[in-house]
């Protein structure tokens, strides 16, 4: 992000110089003066980056544990690596370190209830089927994956790197399944549906 210091000069991004500008402003006009970045500004800005939604799944204490996550992306093609960023306070954080194998389920358009269910900090997930329609199948390795997901990736933990209050879990992809269908999207704190392709 481009920032302006108080004298209007150009300033590289760093935590101490983080700034926030409310746009739009006309193209070609001088960049606006900026304010220090608050956490609300940060969230709002990142919320303008549209994403899909995943649920991270693994076994824990005789039930399937799930966590809704959109901080998911590909990392490398050779080897095939992906990453997910997990809050260090989330129960999933400890489960990932312990299990080292997990599923990443890319939610389909009709799975909003599943996303909402696994975003709640409930103690157990024993009502996932009744409340959200979450039914699980097993990969050859025994990893639980969501029935009806648009895609799933079976992942084996490669490395973990703490970054602020989250940890970046990088994982090797061992198996993938993709179905036809439309994804569930998340944009500006709301669930969205995909539109037709732009020409
Ligand atoms: C759309 C959406 C995306 C989310 N993405 C993430 C994420 O990428 N990483 C994360 O740690 N939490 C994310 N969360 C929050 C967790 O789903 C939530 O804190 C959950 O209760 C953690 O569950 P756990 O404590 O059982 O692991 C997201 C929530 C929503 C609604």
Task: Outline the structure in words.
By secondary structure, the protein is mainly beta. It has 2 domains: 3-46, no CATH class; 51-193, Pnp Oxidase, Chain A (Roll), CATH 2.30.110. Helix content is 14%, strand content 41%. The protein contains 4 helices and 16 strands. It has helices at 39-46, 91-99, 112-117, 128-132, and strands spanning 3-4, 10-11, 19-20, 35-36, 51-52, 54-60, 63-69, 72-76, 81-87, 101-106, 136-138, 144-146, 151-163, 166-178, 184-187, 190-193. The strands form 5 sheets. A 7-stranded antiparallel sheet has the order 7-6-10-13-14-9-8. Strand 1 (3-4) and strand 2 (10-11) form a beta hairpin. The longest helix is centred in the middle third of the chain and has 9 residues, at 91-99. The radius of gyration is 19 Å and the shape is globular. The two termini are 29 Å apart. Residues 1-17 have low confidence and may be disordered. It binds flavin mononucleotide. Flavin mononucleotide (FMN) binds next to strand 7, strand 9 and helix 2.
Short description:
This protein has 4 helices and 16 strands. With 199 residues, the chain is mostly beta strands.
Name the descriptors.
single chain, 199 residues, mainly beta, Pnp Oxidase, Chain A, 2 domains, seven-stranded antiparallel beta sheet, three-stranded antiparallel beta sheet, 4 helices, 14% helix, disordered N terminus, binds flavin mononucleotide
DSSP E strands, number: 16
Relative strand content: 35-45%
Low-confidence stretches: 1-17
The hetero compounds bound to this protein are: flavin mononucleotide
Number of helical runs? 4
CATH superfamily of the largest domain: Electron Transport, Fmn-binding Protein, Chain A
Q: Class by helix and strand content?
A: mainly beta
Could you please say which CATH topology of the largest domain applies here? Pnp Oxidase, Chain A
Q: What portion of residues is helical?
A: 10-25%
Largest sheet: number of strands, sense, barrel closure: 7 strands, antiparallel
Using the alpha-carbon principal axes, give the shape: globular
Number of domains: 2
Strand order of the largest sheet: 7-6-10-13-14-9-8
Distance, first to last CA: 29 Å
Helix/strand order = EEEEHEEEEEHEHHEEEEEE
């Amino acid at each position: 992000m481009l920032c302006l210091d108080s004298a209007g000069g150009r300033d590289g991004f760093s935590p101490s110089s983080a700034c926030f500008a409310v746009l739009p402003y006309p193209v070609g006009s001088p960049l606006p003066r900026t304010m220090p970045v608050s956490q609300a500004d940060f969230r709002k800005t990142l919320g303008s980056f549209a994403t899909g939604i995943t649920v991270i799944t693994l076994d824990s204490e005789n039930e399937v544990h799930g966590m809704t996550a959109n901080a998911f992306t590909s990392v490398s093609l050779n080897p095939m690596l992906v990453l997910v960023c997990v809050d260090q306070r989330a129960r999933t954080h400890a489960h990932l370190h312990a299990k080292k194998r997990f599923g990443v389920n890319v939610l389909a358009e009709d799975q909003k209830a599943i996303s909402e269910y696994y975003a709640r900090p409930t103690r157990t997930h024993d009502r996932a089927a009744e409340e959200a329609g979450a039914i699980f199948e097993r990969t050859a390795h025994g990893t639980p994956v969501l029935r009806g997901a648009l895609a799933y990736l079976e992942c084996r933990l490669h490395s973990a790197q703490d970054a602020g209050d989250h940890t970046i879990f990088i994982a090797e992809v061992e198996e993938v399944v993709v179905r036809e269908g439309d994804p569930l999207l998340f944009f500006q704190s709301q669930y969205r549906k995909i539109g037709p392709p732009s020409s």
